[in-house]
């Protein structure tokens, strides 16, 4: 039977896959388009590239939501966590996350919204194809996940504040400084996600409400900036982990040392893996371990 650490790590790995998948296919095609100053790979590659990029974007959003729900259940409903997030259930939740991601991306083929945009040299979601569909995308892919994640972290914040100030003195609760730092790590990830994605989604929402009037008023530099802000968010997650979480800094150091000394690669990775098993982490690799809180 796997520990809460292992089940929680499933969602962190899934988020990493969602962040990295664009580097496999879409980004090389984008670089080719930049080099030729046009899309020269044909419509089929354009559709596939746009679909994979959509999977990455929506997958990242849905996985961030799944991590927030996982963290909320572990901290606020710790007595039921083992039952809710058994290894079987966790795998089912993970499959459900990616099934919903695929279902949310497939309608682009029927609407015809995956088009080449010369402003960003990418085949991506075109906000002006269908006003109703664009509004639905913003609501389902951004606003609803934002509300769910906000609720989860708000409940966790309330619980942390209650424990810190001994409001609920009838319970023997204890919050370690390291637990608070780990919680702050994923909270910062969520805040950066909201900040990076908000401009592009609000531009899309404004254009969808009144395409004829609002569309021409959106300057090209603003759209391009908001677009690259959104996709740059995937790069920021690893930086945040490294800056704010001691365990990630330790693993990064092991990886860098192994890369710098190839002869020690297997020895360093083995040592890092052994140290990781000995360390006491929360259900997610960056989670705040408040297992001692009983509600």
Automatic annotation (TrEMBL):
It is found in: Cell membrane. Pfam families: 7tm_1. It is a multi-pass membrane protein. InterPro entries: GPCR_Rhodpsn (IPR000276), GPCR_Rhodpsn_7TM (IPR017452), Mel_rcpt_1C (IPR002279), Melatonin_rcpt (IPR000025). GO terms for molecular function: melatonin receptor activity. The chain crosses the membrane at residues 7-28, 48-69, 90-111, 131-161, 182-209, 221-244. One of its GO terms (cellular component) is plasma membrane. Residues 1-241 form the G-protein coupled receptors family 1 profile domain. GO terms for biological process: rhythmic process. The keyword Hydrolase does not apply. Keywords: Biological rhythms, Cell membrane, Disulfide bond, G-protein coupled receptor, Membrane, Receptor, Transducer, Transmembrane, Transmembrane helix. Its main location: membrane. Belongs to the G-protein coupled receptor 1 family. High affinity receptor for melatonin. The activity of this receptor is mediated by pertussis toxin sensitive G proteins that inhibits adenylate cyclase activity. This is G-protein coupled receptors family 1 profile domain-containing protein. It comes from Aldrovandia affinis. The lineage of its organism: Eukaryota, Metazoa, Chordata, Craniata, Vertebrata.
